[in-house]
Amino acid sequence: MSNLPKADEQAPVLAAMRSETMSAHTGAMPAEKEHLSWLASWSGKSPKVERPLMALFAGTHGVSGQTGEADTLDAVTRLAAGGSAVNQVCASQDIGLKVFDLALQIPVGDITETAAMDEKGAAGTIGFGMEAIAGGVDLLGLAAFGRGGEVADAVLLELAAGQTREAALAHAGIAAGGPQAAQVEKAVGLHGDATGDPMELLRRLGGREHSAVAGAILAARVNHVPVVLGGIRAWVVALLLDQIETGACAHCAVAGGEAEEFAGLVARTCAMPRVLAGFGQSSEGMQAALAIGLLKGLAAAHDGFAETA
């Protein structure tokens, strides 16, 4: 990961110049300038969004009493039928949508007793996630979900990101003193020896959706595709990748969430911009899709204005 492509230096300069020209007519729009400079930096071209894609990864977990296979399958079925909020956003903004069912009938291992995946399974799932950009994408939205994954989120936050138990539980949405908190404690005790090895922690603790998101983020970086991350699970993966290589997710933006809460922490830690701050957080990608729509609209206004100014 030390050889990941760097941001383009010339494209954001040109984008900033066009933003200045535009703001002379429309009034100052600092957020517009920031967002489009970021798009230009990581795409290496004039900000223009023509093939946006929202990719959702769904997985199940073997933590006792938390497999949630039926709940997760219901969510995938609803998405496939076009009945989720993210479906409506993507349809209205002409954003492609892919939903990846990651072997929902076969949950990963119970992380309170064993590793979630073996090395072959983890590597294969990372590779599968890399296929999210197949077919050509110029702006990628990522989100992931699956009942029971919040336990993995909390343990990863504690062991990989160095958060306190209290903070890790809160950020993962787990009530202190509840059954899931006890599962977190047990998993931390079992896997604590891997602290300091983020990829090993991803294998031992993460669900297939965690690994797939990691693969998609890395593939996007290599192919100069900016990424918008929506929801806690995608943000946890970003923190983990940043532990492996500082700046590994600089080509990503955080969609939604509050500045003083987990979204703000992730953005600050990973040096990522934020889009649609204050719009909440959804594991099924609605905020990420809304953010893509905003960026697409800003890029169109920017590009069209530059041509006619």
How would you portray this structure in words?
With 309 residues, the chain is of the alpha/beta class. The protein has one domain: Nicotinate-nucleotide-dimethylbenzimidazole phosphoribosyltransferase (CobT), large domain (Rossmann fold), CATH 3.40.50. Strands 2-1-3-4-5-6 form a 6-stranded parallel beta sheet, with helices on both faces. α6 runs antiparallel to α7. The longest helix is centred in the last third of the chain and has 23 residues.
**Main sheet?**
6 strands, parallel
> Based on DSSP secondary structure assignment, what is the total number of beta strands?
6
Number of helices: 13
End-to-end CA span:
41 Å
Spatial ordering of strands, largest sheet: 2-1-3-4-5-6
Number of domains: 1
CATH architecture designation: 3-Layer(aba) Sandwich
Q: How would the blueprint of this fold be written?
A:
Layout: H1 10-26, H2 30-43, E1 52-58, H3 69-80, H4 85-93, E2 96-101, H5 119-130, E3 139-145, H6 149-159, H7 165-172, H8 179-191, H9 198-205, H10 208-222, E4 227-230, H11 232-244, E5 252-255, H12 262-270, E6 274-275, H13 286-308
Parallel strand pairs: 1-2, 1-3, 3-4, 4-5, 5-6
Gist of the model:
The protein is α/β, with parallel strands linked by helices and 309 residues long. It has helices at residues 10-26, 30-43, 69-80, 85-93, 119-130, 149-159, 165-172, 179-191, 198-205, 208-222, 232-244, 262-270, 286-308, and strands at 52-58, 96-101, 139-145, 227-230, 252-255, 274-275.
Which structural traits does this protein have?
alpha/beta, 6 strands, six-stranded parallel beta sheet, 309 residues, Rossmann fold
